[in-house]
Structure formats: C-alpha cells, structure tokens
Amino acid sequence: MGANSSTAFGVEAGSPDAAEAGVTDLFAVLAYGEISAFYRLAEEAKLSPTLRGKVAVAKMAANEMDHFKTLERALSDRGVDVFDGMAPYVRALDAYHASTDPSTWLESMVKFYVGDGIAADFYTEIADALAPEVAEVVRDVLAETRHSEFVIDEVRTAVEQNRSERDRLTLWGRRLLGEAITQAQYVMAQRDELTDLVLSATGDLNGIATLFERMQDSHAERMRVLGLG
Amino acid sequence: MGANSSTAFGVEAGSPDAAEAGVTDLFAVLAYGEISAFYRLAEEAKLSPTLRGKVAVAKMAANEMDHFKTLERALSDRGVDVFDGMAPYVRALDAYHASTDPSTWLESMVKFYVGDGIAADFYTEIADALAPEVAEVVRDVLAETRHSEFVIDEVRTAVEQNRSERDRLTLWGRRLLGEAITQAQYVMAQRDELTDLVLSATGDLNGIATLFERMQDSHAERMRVLGLG
Q1: Are A192 and A1 in contact (CB under 8 A)?
Q2: What is the ipTM of this complex?
Q3: DSSP string, B18-78
C-alpha cells in the first residue's frame, strides 16, 4: 500500500525525499515511544514492593528521556517540531499500552524487558536500510538499557520457585508479542512513508513476514533469559 | 539538641567525624528528595492539559534522577549505601508531599518552582559550611533546572488575566512555605548530625532564625517572579 500512495503527496517512493520523510516519521514514532514508556514506567513503579525497585525503575524512565532528547534534537536538525511529528502515533502507542496494562510488578518488569526488546528488533532492522548517521541515532536510542540486569534478576528469582507465576508470566509474554505486532502494523498503516521504509529495509512483503518471524525468535530467546517459556 | 546527643554515638560534635556524618546525612536526605520529586512530578504530569506540558515535566523529572545518581555516587564514595542512608528521611519527605498534594496543573507548577526553591535555599546555606568539594556536590544537585522558564511562563500566563486564580495560587504558595519549614524542622530532628551541620552553618539558634527569615524573603521574590503575591 505505502509505496504507491506516497506518490499522492508528490514524493516518489524510493527517492531521497521519500526516504527523508520516512526518517522523520521513524524518529517521531520512536520519540513518542520514549515519552509514553517514561510515563508507563513511572506509573508502574507504584507496583514495586521496594524502594530499591522504585529507584531502578526511575533510572530506566530517566534513560528513556535521554533518548527522547536525542530524537527531539535529530528532528529539530531536520526542521521538524517533535510535537507535530509525534501526533499521528499517539493513538496507536496509547492503545498498545492500554491493552497491555500490567496488574503486578512482575508483569510490569516482563513488559519492560520484552516490549522494549520487540520494539528494538523492529526498528533496528529498519535502521539497517538507512544512511549510517541516521541508523546510528536509531541504534543509540534503542540500545539495551544498563538496567536490564535488574529486571532479569527480579523475574528469574520470582519464577524459579513458583511454577504458577511462571506459567502466568509466560502467557503474559505471549500476549505482549501479539499486541506489539498488531500495533506495529497499525503504526505502519498510519504513514505510508514508514511502510516504504520497512519495505526498503526488508525487500518486499515476504521480507516483512520474515522480519516478523525473526522477531518471534528473538522474543522466545528473551523469554528464556527471563526463565519463562 | 543535636550538638550534645550526637556524642552518644561516640562522635564529638565539631570533630571531623561528626562533620563527615552530617555530610552523608545531607547527601542522603537530598537523594530521597530527588527520588520523591521524580515520582511526584511523574504523577502530577497527569494534570497537564497538553502533551507539551507532559514532556516538559518528564524532562524535569529526568533531571532529578541525574541529581539522584550524583548523590548515590557521592555516598558510595563514602562507603554509604544510598538506601540505608535515605531510610530515616522517607517519612518526613513523604509527609511533606502528602500534605501539599496539588489538585490542579497550576498548583503542581507552583509547587515545583516554589518547593524546589525553598529546599535549594535551605541546603545551599548549609553547604556554605562544608568542605569545597562537598559544597560543590550540593550546589550541583540543587542548581535551578533549565526548565524553570517553562514553569514561569505557564503560571504567569494563567494568572495574568485571572484574579481569582492568582489569589488561590498565592494562598497555595503560602501554604507550601509553611509545610516546607515544618518538614525541614522535622528532618533536622531526625538526625543530630544534620542539626549540627545547620548549627555550624548558621552559627547558633539565632542564626537558624535568620536563615528562615532569608528563606521567606527569597520565597516572596519567587512568588513575584510567578506573578503571584
């Protein structure tokens, strides 16, 4: 769909202009991802049983804001206001978070680790198709946070001795993957320029299918790291 | 009270050891101040009428976490675990926030600007009595955030044309000052080492009274900047 309809805006798919429009869209959706992750983390920290947990989550949230600032600068360098850029993605990302609202501290931890991982897989693959200086911004803001060790410890320790908790969180992880893929498709449908980027990163529709398969494999690996699945 | 009872711990008031204990207490209370400000800001951002406001608040909150990390390092350099250090101050600071829970976006903005300012006045005066490298840490974490302009604009614009809002926020500011001073006294009462620090910074009990007078003057100036009072 994207490759054709983007020409309706007078920008030919595959041209430098189209690629540039896709890049600002990519930066903008990532920026809104950071700000919504920030507020989700801050909200979910209430579920933490300890002050230590709350501090760890606050650091993770602050880290998301560092990434937001990087993207805000990158957009500003391209003459795009971050708020204008983010507007088309507010609904899809809010919907993802609303449909995966954790009800326990451990669900929140799994969501942070697994959800961030899925997003990182998706956008990093797209980044491969971009100019090196653009790809660097994307990789920079998606780099695994230094706080993942805390999350892994929290979850592994909790599920090691508790089979029913492990089963519950395994189902939760599966649901997160499903919702994330649904929302990724919805995000792409919002903007032809993003679809074009994904197509040029993956080759064609078969390539997109293969991308989603690779994402499922990485997801399974992350679940294993958490002691789940 | 402090100067005498601290000797009960085998540390003579005025000795280098006593001063060092006061410094770690000061860092610890500031650290808990940062983490609780982080979560307060994240919570109050819900009151923001715009995404722009939420992003500004998220940046302010992330800034508090940078300060927290500075203090955590400074405590760790002194062999003190930040969580052990913060424990005695949790109740007093939580009580301050509970007693000054903003019910509107503008109350939240005034609290951020005025509350942070009062705390900065108080702790910066104490820092004057400390070794230069210690005072530098304190000044660093209390430096006015770069986001104050946003706060000033929000409040000034809102009260310029609205007399009843201005009156309401003026009373709110007065209440913040009262609660902050109550809690500062309560915090000092928790730890003799902190009281000793304040006494050595201010000279004597008269000095403390003068300190609180200076804090009231700065408070009045900040209220004027916001277009209040």
Answers
A1: yes
A2: 0.84
A3: HHHHHHHHHHHHHHHHHHHHHHHHHHHGGG-SSHHHHHHHHHHHHHHHHHHHHHHHHHHHT
Across the interface, whether the CB atoms of B62 and A59 are under 8 A apart is answered no
- Chain A residues inside the 8 Å CB shell of B68: 55, 58
B39 closest CB neighbour out of A58, A59, A82? A58
Q: In chain A, what are the domains?
A: 14-225 (1.20.1260.10)
Residues A119 and A40: their CA atoms lie apart, in Å, by: 15
Q: Which chain A residues are Cβ-neighbours of B66 within 8 angstroms? A: 62
Do A34 and A82 touch, CB atoms closer than 8 A?
A: no
The pLDDT profile of chain B, 229 residues, written as one tens digit per residue, is 344 443 333 344 455 666 777 899 999 999 999 999 999 999 999 899 999 999 999 999 999 999 999 999 999 999 999 999 999 999 989 999 999 999 999 999 999 999 989 988 888 888 888 889 999 999 999 886 666 888 999 999 999 989 999 999 999 999 999 999 888 888 888 778 888 888 888 888 888 888 889 999 999 999 999 999 7
**Chain B residues touching residue A35 (CB < 8 angstroms):** 51, 54-55, 58
